[in-house]
Amino acid sequence: MNSNNSPIVSIQNLSKSYSNGFQALKNINLDIEKGEIIALLGPNGAGKTTLISIICGIVNPSSGSVSVGGYDIIKDYRKTRSMIGLVPQELTVHAFESVLTTTNFSRGLFGKSPNKEYIDELLKSLSLLEKRDQMIMTLSGGMKRRVLIAKALSHEPLVLFLDEPTAGVDVELRKDMWNVVRALRDKGVTIILTTHYIEEAEEIADRVGIMNKGELVLVEKKTELMHKLGKKQILLDLVSPLQSLPNNFNGYELELKNEGKQLLYTYDGQEKQTGIASFLEQLKKSGIEFRDLNTTQSSLEEIFVQLVKESK
């Protein structure tokens, strides 16, 4: 990641309200570094698509500013738009064109001169080279989505927006898409994707932004987010119910559940010293016996649900 230079995308105090009073975005601030993958998570209506639409110049902001590569998206619209590739949610492709024609056409729209080598390489990376002469209408939904990515990348943008890139896509294709995204990042393309799929963010993002009701609730490095909230738990089924927790368990995060029949121990799964051995030793000393033991770990999904709850 290139943190010495200024961010590739800088969003400052960005808000969007509609004439009916609905506030789609509320004071968003976010800097995105060159060559990072950032995933924006959030329920429907959180403002993810509105945010992308403003940066791409499709929707006008009510207040605030956005720059791409140091240029203002409104004052220097043509300049910023040529740096951006957008893969929309909807499969909008011309059914009667071939894959190659539509990709070349998209490149031409941005005033770029033809480049057969680049386009062939692009189609090859998306497994579309063999299908380049096929009509788009004959392709499967997954392949049509790849054509959209080819179109978005045809003019060699620095920043690629993927709005719900794998919605309704089978697992196989989803994994392929992730590989394509990683390969692009390795070439220095900055990728911003919106997703409903927590595992998508968990799998490929460097940073995760969580949006809810038009606000950016939090932006964290994925590893830090998982670390901060990546608690693990052990649930013990006790042989005899406990009325209360014994005093000699200070320092352990414990909770009695199910009328004292279960004991829940929470610890940081990222720590080298999890304290499990000493905890089990302490149980033995205190004469607390258990029948069964289950471990769980909070996933990004639970973290997400928790954060959205807290921001309501």
Question: What structural keywords apply?
Answer:
312 residues, alpha/beta, Rossmann fold, Alpha-Beta Plaits, 2 domains, six-stranded mixed β-sheet, 10 helices, 14 strands, elongated
Concise overview:
With 312 residues, this protein is α/β, with parallel strands linked by helices. Helix content is 32%, strand content 28%.
Continuous helix count? 10
User: What is the residue-mean pLDDT, rounded to a whole number?
Assistant: 86
Low-confidence stretches: none
> Which strand-content bin applies to the residues?
25-35%
Structural category is alpha/beta
CATH architecture of the largest domain, please?
3-Layer(aba) Sandwich
Largest sheet: 6 strands, mixed
**Total discrete domains:** 2
Task: Tell me the name of the CATH class of the largest domain.
Answer: Alpha Beta
The SSE order reads EEEHEEHEHHHEHEHEEHEEEHEH
Multimeric state: single chain
* CA-atom Rg in angstroms: 24 Å
Describe this structure in words.
The protein is of the alpha/beta class. It has 2 domains: 9-227, 3-Layer(aba) Sandwich (Rossmann fold); 231-298, Alpha-Beta Plaits. Helices cover 32% and strands 28% of the residues. It has 10 helices and 14 strands. The chain has helices spanning 48-55, 77-82, 99-109, 116-125, 141-153, 171-186, 198-204, 222-229, 276-285, 300-310, and strands at 9-17, 23-32, 37-41, 63-68, 71-72, 84-87, 159-163, 190-195, 207-212, 215-221, 231-238, 253-257, 262-268, 290-297. A hairpin with a 2-residue loop joins strand 4 and strand 5. Helix 3 (99-109) runs parallel beside helix 5 (141-153). The radius of gyration is 24 Å and the shape is elongated. The mean pLDDT is 86.
